[in-house]
Design goal:
The protein has 201 residues and is mainly beta. It is built from one helix and ten strands. The strands form three sheets. The protein has a five-stranded mixed beta barrel. The termini are far apart.
Length: 201
């Protein structure tokens, strides 16, 4: 009797498609859930399969990415993709515990050991409608800092340079300007005897 049951179960299981691997050829990223076309390992054409991703994370895998397909209810036509991988672009040699995001163009956000976050890209743009708040004792720029708007210091603004600080253009001081402990407010010029007017901003 049990042998007959086993045979029936085996026949039923043969009719249910198990998870399988394939290769992605095209992604339609417009719908609410991305739809994928691909090719199964047996050469079968895979059409409009849903690419399921975790909430808050989205990617559009390039053609040639490997995929893992789970046929819902054992039906290939209702398959969903639960994982993708591309060996050519995967960031290799991560240390245990490290996390990284990367693209096929070489952009990388790498959460490294030692509590270091390393960003590699061409342009790093932050779109903040209210403020960028850097709660850190020091900000270092290897070459240049460009401010297209106003730069202010709530507790005082100090500008220093190893070879001196150079200002191109007009310097406006709403209160006073002090250099080498000499104030420009009421400063007397010995060569002319004139007194500098208080800064007007």
């Amino acid at each position: 009797m049990w042998a007959d049951v086993d045979k029936r179960v085996a026949r039923a299981m043969r009719g249910i498609r198990q998870a399988f691997r394939g290769v992605l050829t095209l992604v339609n990223s417009a719908p609410a859930v991305q739809l994928v076309q691909g090719v199964g390992l047996a050469g079968e054409q895979l059409q409009d399969m849903e690419l399921m991703q975790h909430y808050g994370f989205g990617s559009n895998p390039p053609a040639g990415s490997m995929i893992v397909v789970v046929p819902v209810g054992g039906n290939t036509s209702h398959g969903i993709i639960i994982a993708t991988e591309h060996g050519q672009y995967r960031l290799k040699n991560l240390a245990p515990g490290e996390v990284a995001l990367n693209t096929d163009e070489g952009d990388v956000i790498h959460l490294k050991r030692g509590r270091v976050i390393e960003v590699t890209t061409g342009v790093f743009r932050v779109n903040a409608s209210e403020m960028v708040d850097l709660n850190t004792p020091k900000v270092r720029a290897a070459k240049e800092v460009v401010a297209e708007g106003k730069m202010t210091g709530q507790g005082g603004l100090e500008v220093s340079g190893g070879d001196g600080a150079k200002i191109n253009g007009t310097l406006h001081a709403t209160e006073d300007l002090v250099a080498d402990n000499v104030s420009l407010r009421g400063h007397r010029h010995p060569e002319t005897g004139t007194v500098t007017d208080p800064p007007q901003g």
